[in-house]
């Protein structure tokens, strides 16, 4: 049985924080590989500055190129309508019953999970890998787990097993203070992106300069 991490995101564009999050989770949870899943129709972040799926996915291809253990999964482009995570995970579990999955998310997303579409089904289906975004996140996640899943069994600091058998693992990631919004803002101001995104991502944006400008600068 392969142990697989799934990192969903808009990736508008993918940046070094995403790559580091994927690599840290891969290593800390001893996963076989991590799949980055660009959201085809993001359920929560629709807007004129959202680049089309293929361009965002091509940038994720460029970001993982040559990085052992990271892959791109375009599964969300195979269906129409909002790309709800619960539907993606249902499909992956049906089509790959021999794999064990960890859905990777920043700690703030864990707190938002009850507001996602059938969000509380997610930890019943797959394991969660929850990464810190700020220093207090382990304490906050610990309190959230105690409140939300009182029957979860703590198996050590930052590790819990839920009643149904899935688990939540906290992953401690060095803070890389970059976001896609920050990258878009810098790009629109004509600034270089060195150190914020992998080189291949910067080249994709340069190659599609006019198209990207129409969406990012105009909005
Ligand atoms: N710098 C970072 N370090 C660790 N995790 C991150 C970082 N940026 C984003 N993530 C996580 O990566 C996942 C996908 O994020 P997403 O594609 O929305 O990027 P974003 O930078 O948060 O985007 P935006 O600025 O457009 O809101 C989420 O789980 C998010 O918490
Ligand atoms: O399914 C939902 O309702 C849902 C709501 C918010 C976010 N998500 C997913 O969570 C992942 C990270 O989201 P974001 O906003 O950080 O890009 C991405 O795969 C989104 O599709 C999913």
From TrEMBL:
Reaction catalyzed: nicotinate beta-D-ribonucleotide + ATP + H(+) = deamido-NAD(+) + diphosphate
PANTHER family per the UniProt record, alphabetical: NICOTINATE-NUCLEOTIDE ADENYLYLTRANSFERASE-RELATED, PHOSPHOPANTETHEINE ADENYLYLTRANSFERASE
Parts forming coiled coils: none
Example GO BP: NAD+ biosynthetic process
Keywords noted in UniProt: ATP-binding, NAD, Nucleotide-binding, Nucleotidyltransferase, Pyridine nucleotide biosynthesis, Transferase
Protein name, per record: Probable nicotinate-nucleotide adenylyltransferase
EC number: 2.7.7.18
Family: Belongs to the NadD family.
Organism of provenance: Desulfobaculum xiamenense
The keyword NAD appears for this protein: yes
Classification via SUPFAM superfamilies: Nucleotidylyl transferase
Any one GO molecular-function label of the UniProt entry: nicotinate-nucleotide adenylyltransferase activity
Pathway: Cofactor biosynthesis; NAD(+) biosynthesis; deamido-NAD(+) from nicotinate D-ribonucleotide: step 1/1
Function, as annotated: Catalyzes the reversible adenylation of nicotinate mononucleotide (NaMN) to nicotinic acid adenine dinucleotide (NaAD).
Domain spans labelled Cytidyltransferase-like: 6-186
């Amino acid at each position: 049985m392969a142990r697989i991490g799934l990192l969903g995101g808009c990736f508008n564009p993918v940046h070094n924080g995403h790559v580091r999050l994927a690599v840290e989770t891969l290593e800390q949870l001893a996963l076989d590989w991590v799949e980055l899943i660009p959201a085809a129709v993001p359920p929560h972040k629709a807007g004129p500055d959202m680049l089309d799926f293929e361009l965002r996915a091509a940038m994720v291809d460029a970001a993982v190129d040559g990085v052992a253990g990271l892959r791109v999964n375009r599964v969300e482009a195979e269906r129409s309508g909002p790309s709800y995570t619960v539907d993606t995970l249902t499909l992956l579990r049906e089509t790959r019953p021999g794999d064990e999955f960890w859905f990777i998310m920043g700690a703030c997303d864990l707190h938002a999970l009850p507001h996602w579409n059938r969000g509380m089904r997610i930890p019943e289906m797959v394991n969660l890998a929850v990464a810190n975004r700020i220093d207090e996140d382990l304490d906050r996640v610990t309190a959230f787990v105690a409140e939300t899943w009182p029957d979860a069994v703590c198996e050590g600091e930052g590790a819990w097993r839920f009643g149904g058998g899935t688990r939540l693992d906290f992953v401690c990631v060095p803070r890389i203070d970059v976001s896609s919004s920050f990258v878009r803002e810098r790009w629109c101001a004509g600034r270089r992106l060195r150190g914020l995104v992998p080189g291949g991502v910067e080249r994709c944006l340069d190659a599609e300069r006019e198209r990207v400008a129409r969406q990012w600068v105009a909005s």
